[in-house]
Amino acid sequence: MSKLSQRHLLGIKNLTREDLELIFETADNFKEVINRPIKKVPSLRDVTIANIFFENSTRTRLSFELAEKRLSADVVNFSASNSSVKKGETLLDTVHNILAMKVDMVVMRHASAGAPHFLARHINANIINAGDGTHEHPTQALLDAFSIREKLGAVSGKKIAIIGDILHSRVALSNIFALQKLGAEVMVCAPPTLLPKYISSLGVKVELEVQKALAWCDVANVLRIQLERQQIKYFPSLREYSLYYGINKKMLDDLKKEIVLMHPGPINRGVELSSDAADSHHSIILDQVENGVAVRMAVLYLLAGSTN
């Protein structure tokens, strides 16, 4: 088995293009597995994985848990809201206690940027970052790029527009890194208040008008407005945001070409996407969900192999 260049998945920034291609080829094989009548393989039968989520999550957590079970791993779920973290226990103490139970891999989501990197320096288990603050969300970017590759045949040479709350999104940063490594052109589109100051240093195009972004791109990856991360008002109202940056099916149908519509979920229907756009033939949102399991199976399998 080929190996990844890293023993942790902390972010896309650390991966090579060869790493990305290896993950995709492995995910191709696992996608066949999860579409068979018997969906399990014994690949990680002797591996124990702890899912440690310090932030709420439905999709990512379920996707990881399903991927782990499809690989026959033993799974331990940990939720900070029901734990000794509430009593003042530190992150490191929490994880050391879990590892004392002989856990081999840790999948972690944390509100603080850099938390998985901190952990990787202090413990021996493989760490997978399931989202750290507004920093990175590597498996989401991998499944997004995998879905584009599956739909359009390749990522290289494609024009991808990332539209929405760029400032608060860990998905945007991971996507930019992944898509550029794979040879795509990337544009970000958002109100000026939702664009980070450093955005131009990432080598992406910047567009303020959503119609122009849609006319330019092959793929529109639309991000959720992250109200829970916004400490101040970045735009007058959701209605106003929807008026200027919301995408509906008529806008897609009026384009002189076919484009692919994506969303990492959960969708604020009627805000960033109308229901008729989200459920249209342009959309591959449910394909992304299915591909998330195959891609996460690939990551878990390859990282488990990196310690052998």
Q: Can you tell me about this structure?
A:
Helix 1 (17-34) packs across helix 11. It is built from eleven helices and nine strands. The chain has a five-stranded parallel β-sheet, with helices on both faces. It has a four-stranded parallel β-sheet with strand order 2-1-3-4, with helices on both faces. The relative contact order is 0.16. By secondary structure, the protein is of the alpha/beta class. The chain folds into two domains: 12-136 and 289-306, 3-Layer(aba) Sandwich (Rossmann fold), CATH 3.40.50; 138-284, Aspartate/ornithine carbamoyltransferase (Rossmann fold), CATH 3.40.50. Mean pLDDT is 91; it is low at 228-232.
Secondary-structure map with pairings?
Blueprint: H1 17-34, E1 48-53, H2 59-70, E2 74-79, H3 91-99, E3 105-110, H4 115-122, E4 126-132, H5 138-152, E5 159-163, H6 170-181, E6 185-189, E7 205-207, H7 210-216, E8 219-222, H8 238-245, H9 249-253, E9 260-262, H10 275-278, H11 285-306
Parallel strand pairs: 1-2, 1-3, 3-4, 5-6, 5-8, 6-7, 8-9
Helix pairs in contact: 1-11, 2-11, 5-6, 5-11
